[in-house]
């Protein structure tokens, strides 16, 4: 389940062990609920006292124990028919009205509802009926089995030219049995499919795409295994292939083998826990006695290979078309004005057919049928599937011009008085300009994903592998391709070198610069047992690192995958373009036919003044030109590229700045934000409390006082407890001081701890805990607590044997630039509100210091979410910034959830945007980036639609009667190509985005 999955960032930022799950996926708008209820006992933030929570971990544990006692149960339902957030809200409300419902969450994208309920009061069947009563189909599912069988497959799709193509592929995939959701992106030319592997296999999805007329190449099946392409050098025959397959299959962990003899490539799927690429290469070479050598296939970076291949094809096609098109252009538009050449070209060959016409016919034919073949095949496939696209418009326009020209020339050849008019230059120049436009468009689109390429380049190309003997001693080392690193390999990292793989240090100590991953500017000290992240830079010492997560499991790969998924997700505004594109091409065809018909009939009606029609051209020819121009200029390519290219660039730029935006919807919602709700601890403050003052109310030695308090608090993992224990250690000279034994330890979430230390009953906690324990708080202690609250410090009361003996003051320093961030948000017309579980005194003091006027204190987690909903009902678009488990409900409820990267994995998964650097100023950057992105999207739409609104009438000839101005079809084709390129280039300008100057690096 999503909320219980340990996200990658926990290991990145907190040094999680090998057991930490590495799956970081793009989360739906309504994330899955945890198996156990969110801890309602949590009263505030981690690290806040005086009515605040005494620990997320303790609260979660307490809530889980309580849930087990009350026999709560989780049920998951597949819900069909939901289309928007309003549908999800209806389902949620219908379920929550039932008796015995603890909580419910609805995933509108995944089509499911998850309910936490008490079986003594309500059954799964009753819940299902309640959902169906409001008009949706519901079916109980086995969540455990479902999660294991639901995979996300990625395909590279060749041949898509506009949104009509993407809609065709998307519809075909959505209709396939077992497919839950399919998203096809024109800008990346990829499809992301969420499917049930029990019902459908990845190769069947490829066939489904190919049946729509496009070519599909598998990127990943989404299964929990690695896939590698190996290049085979040597002569392959049936015997060697059989030996290779049987030898590789015998290796543990190998799941699938595919041999491509033409490309000399072997594709192997394997489990990284059991084998790896180096083992596979060794087996291949040893099994064939050295006749065959293997290496990492140079084209294994699939996406880039396909893109470069497509760029190369379009470039070659364009250059070949120029060879034929330039002579056609010269003979029709240049040489006709040079006296000597004109006479030669007009010389008759057969009857009225001239040399110039024959040359143009011969030269334009290869362009029309060989170079332009891809437009024919694309148009044929599109028409067969009832989804006309750009290829249909191009094929119709160029064929109309070409075949009319052929008719005219042949008629001249058999006639003694017919003067032909050909448009061979129209068809050949039109194809040439479209090929040039597609070439420039692919070049530009490739630059939209440069951020991902830069992330991937963080990993070093080579690594130094240490070779050990049977006793574990290092006996040698060798340099290997970093892609050949396997799990449990020991890698040597020298000063100044990059860490080649995620792992942990087994020898040496150094400082590692992790800023490219975590954003932490200061190098982090590393010694034996500490975790390191692949792609980070070792500063000064030598480290021996044991690889734990390699290949697709690495932190870097997970971040890249998250950004890729974000770029695949469509922004809601893109639906506008999709709806237009569904009817646009048929409408253009009808419009072009009407244009031709109007002009043709106009020339045939005598008695109406059409003296402005050129004498050298009859009404049919003029109408033909106008019809072709309309057909070509109205291609919807620019409209389809307006949103995805901008979203791709923005998510890539965000990732490079440490801001992970989970898709177009998060980006679109962020630009509308006019109210931000901030958590306090770990968000506005650093989140690492320190003891700043101690006030003893009884005569006793300070060290003895802290020995007792630390002994009690040492059993707690609460941040306040850790701060007290760390402070107590400073009072002892020895490094590992042993505290007195604490007996009968009790932790009360949100209040404090109680234990027996040195025959004294020690109680440490807040005011309410003391009162509930029957301890009178003297006036002097109350005055001290009030003073500490005024200073934005948390006062923790210490009582021994039912008597208050001291107060420990703990402060959580405010983050640098917090005041400047709040001030800058005000200048952006964004209201800031602080909602915290801490006491009012501390909350007000923090609010005054950072400049927040609206404050809500002593708020429980569910109250934070309720406040967010109140603000939404008042008409505001609300963002929530938090880092703790208790912030998750509010993060989900908000229009945009922003999680501090160093926070808990649950908060990170619940959020729409992750601020990896944990810098508060990144909140400003995220909103500013989203606003600038949507400004560019709007401008893209203005240009794309405006271009058609202005261009179509001109192409149809509205200016011709008054000014004799015509838009030749080849000029219309050039303008159409230029519109797509201009939209992509306008989006590309986002690559130069800079954070607001006040916070820019």
From TrEMBL:
<dbReference type="GO" id="GO:0016020">
    <property type="term" value="C:membrane"/>
</dbReference>
<feature type="compositionally biased region" description="Basic and acidic residues">
    <location>
        <begin position="55"/>
        <end position="65"/>
    </location>
</feature>
<feature type="region of interest" description="Disordered">
    <location>
        <begin position="29"/>
        <end position="65"/>
    </location>
</feature>
<dbReference type="GO" id="GO:0046872">
    <property type="term" value="F:metal ion binding"/>
</dbReference>
<dbReference type="InterPro" id="IPR006121">
    <property type="entry name" value="HMA_dom"/>
</dbReference>
<dbReference type="InterPro" id="IPR023299">
    <property type="entry name" value="ATPase_P-typ_cyto_dom_N"/>
</dbReference>
<dbReference type="GO" id="GO:0140581">
    <property type="term" value="F:P-type monovalent copper transporter activity"/>
</dbReference>
<feature type="transmembrane region" description="Helical">
    <location>
        <begin position="583"/>
        <end position="602"/>
    </location>
</feature>
<keyword id="KW-0406">Ion transport</keyword>
<keyword id="KW-0547">Nucleotide-binding</keyword>
<dbReference type="InterPro" id="IPR059000">
    <property type="entry name" value="ATPase_P-type_domA"/>
</dbReference>
<dbReference type="InterPro" id="IPR001757">
    <property type="entry name" value="P_typ_ATPase"/>
</dbReference>
<keyword id="KW-1133">Transmembrane helix</keyword>
<keyword id="KW-1278">Translocase</keyword>
<dbReference type="Pfam" id="PF00403">
    <property type="entry name" value="HMA"/>
</dbReference>
<dbReference type="InterPro" id="IPR036412">
    <property type="entry name" value="HAD-like_sf"/>
</dbReference>
<feature type="transmembrane region" description="Helical">
    <location>
        <begin position="967"/>
        <end position="989"/>
    </location>
</feature>
<feature type="domain" description="HMA">
    <location>
        <begin position="226"/>
        <end position="292"/>
    </location>
</feature>
<dbReference type="InterPro" id="IPR027256">
    <property type="entry name" value="P-typ_ATPase_IB"/>
</dbReference>
<keyword id="KW-0067">ATP-binding</keyword>
<dbReference type="Pfam" id="PF00122">
    <property type="entry name" value="E1-E2_ATPase"/>
</dbReference>
<feature type="transmembrane region" description="Helical">
    <location>
        <begin position="317"/>
        <end position="338"/>
    </location>
</feature>
<keyword id="KW-0677">Repeat</keyword>
<dbReference type="InterPro" id="IPR023298">
    <property type="entry name" value="ATPase_P-typ_TM_dom_sf"/>
</dbReference>
<feature type="transmembrane region" description="Helical">
    <location>
        <begin position="622"/>
        <end position="642"/>
    </location>
</feature>
<keyword id="KW-0186">Copper</keyword>
<feature type="domain" description="HMA">
    <location>
        <begin position="73"/>
        <end position="139"/>
    </location>
</feature>
<keyword id="KW-0812">Transmembrane</keyword>
<feature type="transmembrane region" description="Helical">
    <location>
        <begin position="941"/>
        <end position="961"/>
    </location>
</feature>
<dbReference type="InterPro" id="IPR018303">
    <property type="entry name" value="ATPase_P-typ_P_site"/>
</dbReference>
<protein>
    <recommendedName>
        <fullName>P-type Cu(+) transporter</fullName>
        <ecNumber>7.2.2.8</ecNumber>
    </recommendedName>
</protein>
<dbReference type="InterPro" id="IPR023214">
    <property type="entry name" value="HAD_sf"/>
</dbReference>
<keyword id="KW-0479">Metal-binding</keyword>
<dbReference type="InterPro" id="IPR036163">
    <property type="entry name" value="HMA_dom_sf"/>
</dbReference>
<keyword id="KW-0813">Transport</keyword>
<feature type="domain" description="HMA">
    <location>
        <begin position="151"/>
        <end position="217"/>
    </location>
</feature>
<feature type="transmembrane region" description="Helical">
    <location>
        <begin position="392"/>
        <end position="414"/>
    </location>
</feature>
<dbReference type="GO" id="GO:0005524">
    <property type="term" value="F:ATP binding"/>
</dbReference>
<dbReference type="InterPro" id="IPR017969">
    <property type="entry name" value="Heavy-metal-associated_CS"/>
</dbReference>
<keyword id="KW-0472">Membrane</keyword>
<dbReference type="InterPro" id="IPR044492">
    <property type="entry name" value="P_typ_ATPase_HD_dom"/>
</dbReference>
<dbReference type="Pfam" id="PF00702">
    <property type="entry name" value="Hydrolase"/>
</dbReference>
């Amino acid at each position: 389940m999503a909320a219980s999955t340990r996200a990658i960032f926990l290991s990145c930022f907190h040094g999680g062990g090998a057991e930490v799950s590495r799956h970081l996926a793009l989360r739906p708008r309504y994330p899955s609920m945890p198996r156990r209820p969110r801890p309602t006992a949590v009263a505030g933030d981690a690290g806040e006292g005086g009515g605040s929570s005494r620990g997320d971990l303790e609260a979660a544990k307490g809530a889980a124990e309580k849930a087990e006692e009350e026999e709560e149960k989780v049920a998951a339902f597949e819900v069909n028919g939901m289309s928007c957030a309003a549908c999800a809200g209806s389902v949620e409300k219908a379920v929550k009205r039932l008796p015995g419902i603890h909580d419910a969450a609805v995933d509108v994208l995944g089509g499911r509802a998850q309910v936490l309920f008490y079986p003594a009061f309500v059954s799964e069947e009753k819940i299902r009926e309640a959902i169906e009563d409001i008009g949706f189909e519901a079916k109980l599912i086995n969540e455990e089995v479902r999660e294991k069988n639901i995979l996300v497959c990625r395909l590279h799709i060749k041949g898509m030219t506009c949104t009509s193509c993407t809609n065709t592929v998307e519809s075909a995939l959505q209709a396939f049995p077992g497919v839950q959701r399919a998203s096809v992106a024109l800008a990346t030319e990829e499809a992301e499919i969420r499917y049930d592997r029990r019902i459908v296999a990845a190769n069947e999805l490829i066939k489904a795409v190919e049946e729509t007329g496009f070519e599909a190449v598998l990127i990943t099946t989404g299964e929990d295994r690695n896939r590698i392409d190996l290049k085979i050098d040597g002569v392959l025959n049936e015997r060697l292939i059989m030996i290779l397959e049987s030898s590789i299959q015998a290796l543990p962990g190998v799941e699938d083998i595919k041999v491509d003899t033409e490309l000399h490539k072997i594709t192997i799927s394997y489990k990284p826990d059991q084998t790896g690429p180096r083992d596979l290469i060794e087996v291949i070479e040893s099994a064939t006695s050295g006749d065959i050598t293997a290496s990492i296939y140079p084209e294994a970076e699939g996406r880039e290979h396909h893109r470069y291949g497509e760029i190369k094809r379009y470039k070659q096609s364009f250059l070949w078309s120029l060879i034929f098109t330039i002579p056609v252009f010269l003979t029709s538009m240049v040489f006709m004005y040079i006296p000597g050449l004109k006479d030669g070209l007009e010389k008759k060959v057969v009857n009225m057919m001239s040399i110039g016409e024959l040359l143009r016919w011969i030269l334009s034919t290869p362009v029309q049928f060989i170079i332009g073949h891809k437009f024919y095949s694309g148009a044929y496939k599109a028409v067969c599937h009832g989804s006309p696209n750009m290829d249909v418009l191009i094929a119709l326009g160029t064929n109309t011009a070409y075949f009319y020209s052929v008719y005219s020339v042949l008629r001249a050849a058999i006639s003694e008085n017919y003067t032909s008019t050909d448009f061979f230059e129209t068809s050949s120049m039109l194809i040439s300009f479209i090929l040039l436009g597609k070439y420039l468009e692919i070049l530009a689109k490739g630059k939209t994903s440069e951020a991902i390429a830069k992330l991937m380049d963080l990993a070093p190309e080579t690594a130094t592998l240490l070779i050990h003997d049977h006793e574990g001693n290092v006996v040698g080392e060798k340099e290997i391709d970093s892609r050949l690193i396997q799990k449990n390999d020991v890698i040597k990292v020298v000063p100044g070198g990059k860490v080649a793989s995620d792992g942990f240090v087994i020898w040496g100590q150094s400082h590692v610069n992790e800023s490219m991953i975590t954003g932490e500017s200061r190098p982090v000290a590393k010694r034996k047992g500490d975790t390191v992240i692949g792609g980070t830079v070792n500063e000064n010492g030598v480290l021996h690192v044991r690889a734990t997560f390699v290949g697709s499991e690495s932190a870097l790969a997970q971040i890249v995958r998250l950004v890729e998924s974000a770029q695949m997700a469509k922004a809601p505004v893109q639906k506008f373009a999709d709806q237009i594109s569904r009817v646009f091409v048929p409408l253009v065809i009808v419009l072009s036919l009407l244009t031709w018909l109007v002009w043709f009939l106009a020339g045939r009606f005598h008695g109406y003044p059409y003296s402005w029609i050129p004498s050298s051209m009859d009404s049919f020819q003029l109408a033909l030109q106008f019809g072709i121009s309309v057909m070509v200029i109205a291609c919807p390519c620019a409209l389809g590229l307006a949103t995805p290219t901008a979203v791709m660039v923005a998510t890539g730029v965000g990732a490079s700045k440490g801001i992970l935006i989970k898709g177009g919807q998060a980006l679109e919602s962020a630009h509308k934000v006019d109210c931000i709700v901030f958590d306090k601890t770990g968000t506005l403050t650093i989140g690492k409390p320190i003891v700043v003052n101690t006030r003893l109310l009884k005569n006793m030695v300070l060290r003895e006082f802290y020995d007792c308090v630390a002994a009690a608090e040492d059993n707690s993992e609460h941040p306040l407890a850790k701060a007290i224990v760390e402070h107590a250690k400073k009072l002892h000279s020895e490094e590992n001081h042993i505290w007195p034994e604490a007996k009968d330890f009790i932790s009360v979430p949100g209040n404090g701890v109680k234990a027996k230390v040195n025959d004294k009953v020690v109680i440490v906690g807040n005011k309410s805990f003391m009162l509930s324990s029957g301890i009178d708080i003297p006036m002097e202690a109350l005055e001290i607590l009030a003073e500490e609250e005024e200073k934005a410090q948390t006062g923790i009361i210490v009582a021994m044997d039912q008597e208050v003996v001291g107060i420990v003051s703990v402060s959580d320093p405010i983050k640098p630039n917090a005041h400047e961030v709040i001030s800058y948000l005000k200048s952006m017309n964004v209201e800031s509100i602080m909602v915290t579980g801490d006491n009012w005194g501390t909350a007000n003091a923090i609010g005054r210091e950072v400049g927040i006027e609206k404050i809500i204190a002593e708020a429980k987690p569910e109250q934070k979410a309720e406040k967010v909903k109140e603000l939404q009902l008042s008409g505001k678009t609300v963002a929530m910034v938090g880092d703790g488990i208790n912030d998750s409900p509010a993060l989900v409820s908000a229009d945009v959830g922003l999680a501090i990267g160093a926070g808990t994995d649950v908060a990170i998964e619940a959020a729409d945007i992750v601020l990896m650097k944990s810098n508060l100023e990144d909140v400003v950057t995220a909103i500013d980036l989203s606003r600038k992105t949507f400004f560019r999207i709007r401008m893209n739409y203005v240009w794309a639609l405006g271009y058609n609104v202005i261009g179509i009438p001109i192409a149809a000839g509205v200016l011709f009667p008054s000014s004799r101005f015509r838009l030749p079809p080849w000029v219309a084709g050039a303008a159409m190509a230029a519109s797509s390129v201009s939209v992509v280039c306008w989006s590309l300008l986002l690559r130069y985005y800079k954070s607001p100057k006040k916070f820019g690096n």
